[in-house]
Design the sequence.
């Protein structure tokens, strides 16, 4: 019910945009967001956006990543700029911290 896309391999300094498609009932009533998990590390918050459009970011991505949502399309996006090797992880979309996508791999080479 949450389907992520847009991951891949990119060089340091590059950009990627992740997308997450959700069903209408899930999307319209929940905060949506992105977490990531690197090998051997805990899953951590990347960015979130409420139904009213308020956003929150991890300190490590502030100024580089932008989370947005398209209410007409039931989509949430994560625009990732100035990527660093430490951004390498599997990125997961969530809805209300209850429903999670399958994850998409982001690999940033140095």
Sequence:
């Amino acid at each position: 019910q949450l389907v992520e896309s847009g991951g891949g391999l990119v060089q340091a300094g590059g950009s990627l945009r992740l997308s997450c498609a959700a069903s209408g009932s899930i999307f319209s009533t929940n905060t949506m967001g992105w977490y990531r998990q690197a090998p051997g590390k805990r899953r951590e918050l990347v960015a979130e956006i409420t139904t009213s459009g308020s956003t929150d970011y991890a300190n490590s991505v502030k100024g580089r990543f932008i989370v947005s949502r398209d209410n007409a399309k039931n989509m949430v996006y994560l625009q990732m700029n100035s990527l660093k090797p430490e951004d390498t992880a599997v990125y997961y979309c969530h809805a209300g911290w209850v429903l999670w996508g399958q994850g998409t791999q982001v690999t940033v080479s140095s």
About this structure: The chain has a mean pLDDT of 95. The longest helix spans residues 24-28.
